[in-house]
Design brief:
heterodimer; A: about 180 residues; alpha/beta; two-stranded antiparallel ribbon; 5 helices; B: about 170 residues; alpha+beta; four-stranded antiparallel sheet; four-stranded mixed sheet; 1 helix; about 45% strand
Chain lengths: ~180, ~170
């Protein structure tokens, strides 16, 4: 019987492990792998027109870092929402940044962003940057960073506009760290 | 009594194992999409002739991939990319039409996609002086998959199939 209990315990641990993995695969999880709860790593990425943009340029703002690609249908759906939300919350300190993660030319990325009437900066992402944010198993992947530079949530895949807005309100409500 | 308790315990263990397998499936699904290829039986043709072959693929449950001719030019088409031709080559590739489908992320839009099982028909040709023998043709199926909420980076599924060349009837 003792042996049976050992088997049961092992299976239970495996099941629990699978549940935790399955959850973290689609939503923000805690720990270093995704960076949720920790400081958002700084980056230096170029805009399609060659300017360099650092995450630290937006210190004190609530930042939404949206990883997307031109070939990603769900990304295209949420872009107009981000355009509206940037307009709505800009005066309160919101900064959305789009990180393009595809092999299209800079011109194509710029053209796509223009067609989508994007009103926030777009930068060209790199694998290295993606890795520092826990890797990108799928797109869109969106990170919500509070005014203190802490990653509050990491969402893989499309979520509803209301859920996005709620998370934005949450990061806007934070206070920047006092120097 | 003891035997009955043991049987009951084993039943619980079996249930847990089934749950674990189901969760593993869900986890694998959450991780990444896949397109499986099943190598067809070798096609036999005479040197200097052509033959036809059907390459069967299966898109993992819950995912779809763009067809060879997606409606939007920003979408990545599914494409069979083969190694450079030798004396035995693929002379024609026929892709199936995509199925026009709507997805929760774009309910008003029709996307041309493959899901579940689909096949790509290829025509193979052996040059007239091809020595008799078995030839392995290699390549990849290049695709970009999405599920109902997210899209995954483009991937390649290795493709390999055999062509058996026999001497032409005119050869002595």
């Amino acid at each position: 019987m003792n042996r049976n209990f050992v088997i049961l315990a092992i299976i239970s641990v495996l099941v629990l492990g699978m549940l935790i993995f399955a959850k973290s695969a689609t939503h923000g999880a805690s720990g270093a792998a995704t960076g949720v709860g920790g400081g958002a790593p700084d980056f230096a990425l170029n805009t399609p027109d060659g300017k360099t943009l650092h995450l630290s340029d937006f210190r004190g703002k609530a930042v939404v870092l949206n990883f997307w690609a031109t070939w990603c249908g769900p990304c295209k759906i949420e872009m107009p929402w981000f355009v509206d939300l940037q307009k709505k919350y800009e005066s309160q300190g919101l900064q959305i940044i789009g990180v393009a993660m595809d092999d299209s030319s800079k011109e194509d990325i710029e053209k796509f962003a223009k067609e989508m009437s994007v009103n926030y900066p777009i930068v060209i992402g790199t694998e290295k940057t993606a890795d520092t944010y826990g890797g990108l198993p799928a797109l869109p992947t969106t990170l919500y960073i509070d005014r203190d530079g802490k990653v509050v949530d990491r969402v893989i895949g499309l979520r509803g506009r209301a859920e996005i807005e709620q998370t934005i309100q949450k990061i806007l409500a934070t206070k920047p760290a006092t120097p | 009594m003891r035997i009955q308790a043991n049987m009951k315990f084993r039943f619980h263990i079996a249930s847990l194992v089934i749950a674990l397998v189901a969760l593993a499936g869900a986890y694998a699904h959450a991780q990444s999409p896949s397109v499986a290829f099943s190598a067809p039986a070798a096609v036999t043709l005479q040197a200097g002739k052509t033959g036809n072959l059907v390459l069967p693929f299966r898109v993992a449950n819950g995912f779809h991939i763009n067809s060879h001719k997606p409606h939007e030019d920003y979408l990545i088409p599914t494409e069979l990319k083969l190694e450079p031709p030798s004396t035995v080559m693929v002379s024609k590739v026929d892709y199936p039409d995509g199925k026009d489908s709507s997805f929760p992320f774009a309910p008003d839009e029709k996307l041309s996609v493959y899901s579940g099982d689909f096949s790509v028909a290829v025509q193979v040709h052996a040059l007239p002086k091809t020595p008799a023998g078995k030839y392995l043709l290699k390549g990849v199926l290049h695709f970009q998959a999405c599920d109902n909420r997210a899209c995954y980076p483009p991937k390649n599924t290795p493709v390999e199939f055999e062509v058996s060349v026999v001497p032409s009837s005119g050869t002595h």
